[in-house]
Amino acid sequence: MEPSSTPPKILIADDNPQNVELLEAYLSDFDCEIRTAHDGEETLQVVAEYAPDLLLLDVMMPRLSGFEVCRKLRSQPATKDLLILMVTALNEAADFERGVQAGTDDFLTKPVNKIELLCRIRSLLRVRHLKTQLDRTLAYLSEFETASRAEAPQS
Length: 155
Hints:
Elements: E1 9-13, H1 17-26, E2 33-37, H2 40-50, E3 54-58, H3 66-75, E4 83-88, H4 93-102, E5 106-109, H5 114-151
Parallel strand pairs: 1-2, 1-3, 3-4, 4-5
């Protein structure tokens, strides 16, 4: 993220309190705002209320799995572009494939390595920032092109 931008909002969704505490500790030196959710349904509620920039999403949670949460978020216009990093103890190729099909942006396997977590978060947020800049530039160019055509003499 750019130094002048507001700190990213990160939602940690995990039903295991020790995992939540660990992720919060890992993020303690990272300039961000953190909220937590403890099951799939609560995750959807907190996303709607909090509008995080990034969701650290456990796969195996009560009420709704991380895969189901991911699919529901991707199906909604307001949340379809939310950055989702699945954090999971699952490590089979089929599990990763299910995550990709559900719409996750990236994976981290538990136990989570702090350096890897922070690198993935920075990378995802940087890509999002660059995409936002590109979208703004393209919108500006489109407006400029439209205005130029309107001012051009008719022949």
